């Protein structure tokens, strides 16, 4: 091991050896690596990519569920209602997507991500804290979602619009490209389980009953997986025809 500097084998340190009588040899590899390579690789470091992702997912899931409880409180729904509505028989589904938007010389010609609403429940987004680009459609105008260091952007998905009978809106958003600067984002999607049956909360339909226009559920009842099957083909279109299509799917069933 002490001869590592005379060979061309890339320095690799097995961290488990630091706990054994082989520690001096391992220390020697680290010394040599630092003096002669400026690099080394660690094995048995106790951190697996999978473990880090699991922990990240579990923290994001906890935060999503905390947010759902706050929404229940605001909506006057019993605690746990939204979490339960998303549960299906196997609990909610959860996904994370890492995106990189490279600089584009002609932002006027190319969108980073075309306008869409998100299909699922609630979306938590870490966006680049330097490079902007995300915009949402508010009252007919595209509005920037400003990069704020350490902030998590929260976005209401189509399923929350349905469950709240339209009280909460899943809004169109898009990502613009920039002529300079690479933009990174990490989006985590907290979605219903595939077999979860999604429908407007009866308490919210009743609450809207004194409002003439919404005397009955304005949104369909469907199985989340069926909605997703439709969504994948119509993601970059308005959400209303999707809700309509789900209504007729029930009517013809
Ligand atoms: O990258 C972003 O900031 C947003 C991504 C997004 O809207 C999505 O993945 O649905
Ligand atoms: Fe989105």
From TrEMBL:
**Superkingdom of the source species:** Eukaryota
GO MF annotations, alphabetized: metal ion binding; oxidoreductase activity
A Pfam family hit? DIOX_N
Q: Which UniProt keywords apply?
A: Iron, Metal-binding, Oxidoreductase
All residue ranges annotated as the Fe2OG dioxygenase domain in the record? 92-192
Family that this chain belongs to: Belongs to the iron/ascorbate-dependent oxidoreductase family.
Q: Know the name of this protein?
A: Fe2OG dioxygenase domain-containing protein
What organism does the record attribute this protein to? Answer: Panicum virgatum (Blackwell switchgrass)
């Amino acid at each position: 091991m002490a001869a590592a500097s005379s060979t061309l084998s890339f320095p690799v340190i097995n961290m488990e050896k630091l706990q054994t009588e082989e520690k001096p040899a391992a220390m020697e590899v680290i010394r040599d690596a630092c003096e002669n390579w400026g690099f080394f690789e660690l094995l048995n470091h106790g951190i697996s990519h999978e473990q880090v992702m699991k922990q990240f997912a579990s923290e994001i899931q906890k935060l999503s569920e905390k947010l759902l409880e706050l929404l229940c409180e605001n909506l006057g729904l019993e605690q746990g209602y939204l979490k339960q509505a998303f549960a299906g028989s196997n609990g909610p589904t959860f996904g994370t997507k890492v995106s990189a938007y490279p600089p584009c010389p002609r932002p006027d010609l190319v969108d980073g991500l075309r306008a869409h609403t998100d299909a699922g429940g609630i979306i938590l987004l870490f966006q680049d804290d330097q490079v902007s680009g995300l915009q949402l459609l508010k009252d007919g105008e595209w509005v920037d979602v400003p990069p704020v260091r350490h902030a998590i952007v929260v976005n209401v998905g189509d399923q929350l619009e349905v469950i709240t009978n339209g009280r909460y809106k899943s809004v169109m958003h898009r990502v613009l490209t920039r002529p300079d600067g690479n933009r990174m984002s990490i989006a985590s999607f907290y979605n219903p389980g595939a077999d979860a049956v999604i429908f407007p909360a009866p308490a919210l339909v009743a609450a809207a009953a004194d409002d003439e226009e919404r005397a009955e559920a304005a949104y369909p009842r469907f199985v989340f997986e069926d909605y997703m099957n439709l969504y994948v083909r119509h993601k970059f279109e308005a959400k209303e025809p999707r809700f309509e299509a789900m209504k007729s799917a029930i009517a013809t069933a």
